[in-house]
Amino acid sequence: MRIYRIRGGEPLKGKVDISGAKNAALPILAATILTDETITLENVPMVNDTLIMVETLRNLGATVDYIDDNTLSINTSTISKYRVDNPSIKKIRASYYFAGALLGRYRQARVPLPGGCNIGGRGLDMHEKGFKSLGAEVKITESEIIVDGTKNDLVGTRMYMDKVSVGATINIILASVLTPGKTIIEGAAKEPHVVDVANFINGIGGHITGAGTDKIRINGVPKLRGGSYAVIPDQIEAGTFMMAAAITHGDVVVNNVIPTHLDSISSKLREIGCKIEEADDWVRVIGPEGRLRRTQVKTLPYPGFPTDMQPQISVALGLADGCSTVVESIFDNRFMYVNELKKMGCNIVVDECTTAYIDGVEYYQGANMTSPDLRAGAALVLAALAAQGQSDIDGIEYIERGYENFDKKLRNLGADIQKLEV
Prior knowledge:
Blueprint: E1 2-7, E2 13-17, H1 22-31, E3 39-42, H2 48-60, E4 63-68, E5 71-75, H3 97-106, E6 108-112, H4 125-134, E7 137-140, E8 144-148, E9 158-160, H5 166-176, E10 182-186, H6 192-203, E11 208-209, E12 215-219, E13 227-230, H7 235-247, E14 251-255, H8 263-271, E15 275-278, E16 282-286, E17 292-293, E18 296-298, H9 310-317, E19 320-321, E20 323-327, H10 338-342, E21 348-351, E22 355-359, E23 368-370, H11 374-386, E24 390-394, H12 396-399, H13 406-412, E25 416-421
Parallel strand pairs: 2-14, 3-13, 9-10, 17-19, 18-20, 23-24
Antiparallel strand pairs: 1-24, 1-25, 3-5, 4-5, 6-8, 7-8, 10-12, 11-12, 14-16, 15-16, 20-22, 21-22
Helix pairs in contact: 1-2, 1-6, 3-5, 4-5, 7-9, 7-11, 9-11
């Protein structure tokens, strides 16, 4: 078993380079299925989730070569099957993007039900509604999603999303790009990685407008070409390092970012007492000399405060002067880290899985903890960096699903963190 062993108490200082966005890279990797020609994809983070997507593309028959650690050459013209049967794909949530991409290109797909972190209900009802609206037959069994567009001609349509869903918005885009006619998605998700998928597809001949708004229009095209594309920087990785600077009262320049993607995070950091400086592609966070200030947070779809940053800011507020409230409005099981954080002395109570009441303490005490999911695991690392004494954190395979060289980047900022085999 691998663990992080951390000795806390030192402020983080220096510069850190942010990797490509996992949540954009995963659907873009699936979207390469939509063209016969070669795609060069740059700024792909080398994390467990992207490695599984690459493995799955190869399993389907595609040719995928690493030019370097973060650049891939992909040709999917040799795909020979439409059933995803790579066992590893069950470990990640992004498996469902193969349903949209294979349906869009080959008009059929069988994909295992998504896995990933157990952070609450993330149903497939909006995916199913979208595929059916295009004319496909959909069957969801106990183990897989089966979509079939071979019996009826798929055709563009207008659909309204009953609830905001990033995954369903992207999946409908993937299924619609090569579908004749115009598809309109109303109530679409606005997240930066939705925009990035649309930009990638437009760059190879697609016709998508409105990405980043709640109404997306897709004009079906007969064919896509090859090309090169660089994935956007990871908003959540950037936010995690920004929060690390605040929690440790450090001074960190976060490079290779799009500052507007971080506005909601920067705003909350200012509220709790941090100084923020911004330029075209970097953000600097300077923690306060005294204790952090209390505040209230509610997670919302973009451009609101991201649910993937909720555990990290809860850790920060656990050290704030006064009582804070954190409301989780996206997922119903996002507070699984609370019992681990209590081991460090955090005074936090959760009401009905949706609201955390946090009465800040002056310091955390090192403890042995288990990472329950990706973002919660990263948050526990941040807590350990601010704690007195030593902490051991296991379950780090969750963290490595979404953070590239996490321990190395923290060490470069002065953190005392080791990755050990025990």
